Amino acid sequence: MSGGRERDMSDPFETLAVGDPIEGAEFAVSRASIRAFCDASLDYNPLHLDDDYMAGNFGRTSFGGVIMHGMTNFGLITRMLTDWAYDRGALHRRLETRWRSPVKPGDAIRPRAVVKAKQTTGAARWVTLDVVVSNQRGETIATGEALVEFPPS
């Protein structure tokens, strides 16, 4: 019970608990998927297309080959969040991410989230989520935090 009222277990916000997981779809990264993102975003940076260019060093960084756009991670996380939120009558309101490691053709990445906190205000109910994207080796590719708004009860 909360505030002397019965909890409505048919209310998706009320059924959530801190620690509940959210699982996104796996995405297989290929040169074709990287090129498709280049075409969609109009970002033809040689980081994403040119093996010879990527054979060099960038300051103290060497990627060892072409890399996927970081915004592809953002898109995968957004898809996971909106699919999860909309099914519950909620709206994805904010996402902040930090890229941790490059993603290369042949990698398979998957976004996941965990309910970090719930809060009710006069106008809405909010869920804060910790977000992580991992590759097939379990390495963290990106981390972040998201905010989802549920309508008032």
How are the SSEs placed, and which strands pair?
Elements: H1 12-15, E1 21-23, E2 27-28, H2 31-41, H3 51-54, H4 70-86, E3 91-99, E4 108-120, E5 125-135, E6 140-150
Please characterize this protein's 3D structure.
This protein is an alpha+beta fold and 153 residues long. The chain has helices spanning 12-15, 31-41, 51-54, 70-86, and strands at residues 21-23, 27-28, 91-99, 108-120, 125-135, 140-150. It contains four helices and six strands, in the order αββαααββββ. Strands 1, 2, 3, 4, 5 and 6 form a six-stranded antiparallel beta sheet that branches. Strand 4 and strand 5 (125-135) form a beta hairpin. Mean pLDDT is 91; it is low at 1-5.
What's this, in brief?
By secondary structure, the chain is of the alpha+beta class.
Overall shape: elongated
Our count of helices gives: 4
Using only CA atoms, what is the Rg? 19 Å
Question: How far apart are the termini?
Answer: 14 Å
The share of residues in extended strands comes to 25-35%
Largest sheet: 6 strands, antiparallel
Which stretches of 5+ consecutive residues score pLDDT under 50? 1-5
Average pLDDT score: 91
Instruction: Give the SSE order as H and E letters.
Output: HEEHHHEEEE
Find the structural class using helix and strand composition: alpha+beta
Number of strands: 6
- Provide the helix percentage: 10-25%
Notable traits:
153 residues, 4 helices, disordered N terminus
